[in-house]
Design brief:
The chain is an alpha/beta fold and 258 residues long. The protein folds into 2 domains: 159 residues, 3-Layer(aba) Sandwich (Rossmann fold), CATH 3.40.50.620; 64 residues, Alpha-Beta Plaits. The protein has 11 helices and 7 strands.
Length: 258
């Protein structure tokens, strides 16, 4: 099935919208196809504040109605216990809230941005999507991450080259309790790194210490600025270490033919 065909069959849809590469293109394609579509963006302790403003601006640029839903993910003991399948419990909260809000607005079909490149067998959150009946049009129509970046570039969407971003909870080791203080510390640390010009990175908590992981494209620069980074993050952690190996891989846009 082509994506336009999905919208012909599903003319009224709600989109779980993060403002990332996939959900942005899904929302754009729905609007372009003339579907009756609304974007629902969840605000929780797991997302940094800048993401909501970016998502709001993007929805406005695309021309879609936009609503923010507050979800207290830290109210669930299974979420804050941070087991290996934490994403399942978190996704249940988030998608249940979106389904409820969408239902009140008359949208029976709720979609997310899972694409054909995502390994659903290794994603606990996929189980939650299946249980709740969430549709994934990009995946259903066979669109890979490379396809979506290419189509996003052709559409003029600023997200076409945006690095992948995982929620703040992923910075805390599995099995270590998640708290609002830990999430806030992580958000502050990553905001500092962004202000320093880094684009694709993670600041991971290791107890009271931090491990900074930088993608290949800026890794050498990070090592040269190691003392600067450590000084900038010193007020947030007892010790700061720069991972000597680039653990994250930059998006190679040339390799993708973009």
């Amino acid at each position: 099935m082509k994506l336009d065909g999905f919208f012909e069959e599903n003319k009224r849809i709600a989109v779980a919208f993060s403002g990332g590469v996939d959900s942005a293109y899904l929302l754009y394609a729905a609007v372009r196809a003339g579907a009756d579509v609304k974007a629902y963006c969840v605000r929780s302790a797991f997302q940094p504040g800048f993401e909501f403003e970016d998502a709001r601006k993007l929805a406005e640029q695309i021309g879609a109605e936009f609503e923010v839903i507050e979800v207290d993910v830290l109210s669930d003991e299974m979420v804050i216990a941070n087991p290996a399948d934490r994403c399942y419990y978190c996704k249940i909260h988030i998608m249940t809230a979106i389904k409820a809000a969408a239902g009140e607005d008359g949208y029976d079909t709720v979609c997310d941005g899972t694409n054909a490149s995502d390994d659903v067998s290794d994603r606990p959150g996929t189980k939650a999507l299946q249980e709740l009946g969430i549709r994934s049009p990009l995946r259903e129509c066979g669109l890979s991450k490379t396809d979506i970046r290419r189509l996003s570039k052709e559409a003029g969407l600023p997200t076409w080259s945006k690095p992948a971003y995982a929620c703040l909870a992923t910075r805390i080791r599995t099995g270590e309790k998640i708290t609002s203080d830990k999430l806030l510390t992580t958000e502050k640390a990553e905001a500092i790194m962004q202000d320093m010009g880094f684009r694709d990175f993670r600041v991971r908590m290791r107890g009271k210490d931090a491990l900074v992981q930088i993608a290949e494209g800026q890794h050498a620069d990070a090592l040269m600025r190691e003392s600067e980074i450590k000084a900038a993050l010193a007020g947030l952690y007892e010790e700061v270490e720069i991972d000597k190996t680039p653990r994250l891989r930059n998006i190679d846009l040339k390799e993708l033919g973009l």
